[in-house]
Design brief:
Blueprint lengths: L14 E5 L3 H14 L2 E5 L2 H10 L8 E5 L7 H11 L5 E5 L4 H10 L3 E4 L4 H19 L5 H17 L1
Parallel strand pairs: 1-2, 1-3, 3-4, 4-5
Length: 163
């Protein structure tokens, strides 16, 4: 379901940073995302992820971040807090092995946009990352003026009522 409007300047659907300490899982996620049209940067831990982001240009070096929760050195929750502080415009999606409502609520309160439970299902991964990248792209859209919004609403109402 590739939408031409969602293609970035570099010809991809967006750039995603995948942070996962288990190499086989990281590679599998990379392949799914790359095959769908995303550019993927990989990090095996939080330190590598921070280095990748700091080495990139601009306030939004990636369009979305997918981060495992349980990793050595810096865990996923610490990374969420760091990313929300340093890169507040980049949506963060957490990877976890536990389907736990309390954990999900805690992650959202820390700043995660969503979470995915392992094992990762391809359709769910693409849907969640698509929403995250889409949310980021929406932040780049010019703001529609009140007049344009009102005019569009009136046109839509006219179509529904009169059409």
């Amino acid at each position: 379901m590739e939408n031409q409007d969602s293609i970035t300047a570099n010809g991809t659907l967006g750039r995603v940073l995948v942070i996962e300490d288990v190499a086989v899982v990281r590679r599998s996620i990379r392949m799914i995302l790359a095959n769908a049209g995303y550019e993927v940067a990989e990090a095996a831990n939080g330190d590598e992820a921070i280095e990748i982001l700091q080495a990139s240009e601009g306030p939004r070096p990636v369009d979305a971040i997918l981060s495992d929760l349980r990793m050595p050195r810096i865990d996923g929750v610490e990374l969420i807090v760091y990313f929300r502080t340093r890169y507040p415009a980049i949506p963060v999606v957490s990877l976890t092995t536990y389907q736990d409502v309390e954990l999900a609520v805690a992650l959202m309160r820390k700043g995660a946009m969503d979470f995915i439970v392992k094992p990762v299902l391809q359709d769910e991964l693409l849907a969640v990352i698509g929403r995250a990248v889409g949310q980021n792209a929406a932040l780049n859209d010019p703001i529609v003026s009140y007049k344009e919004l009102r005019q569009g609403t009136e046109n839509q109402l006219g179509k529904r009522v009169g059409g």
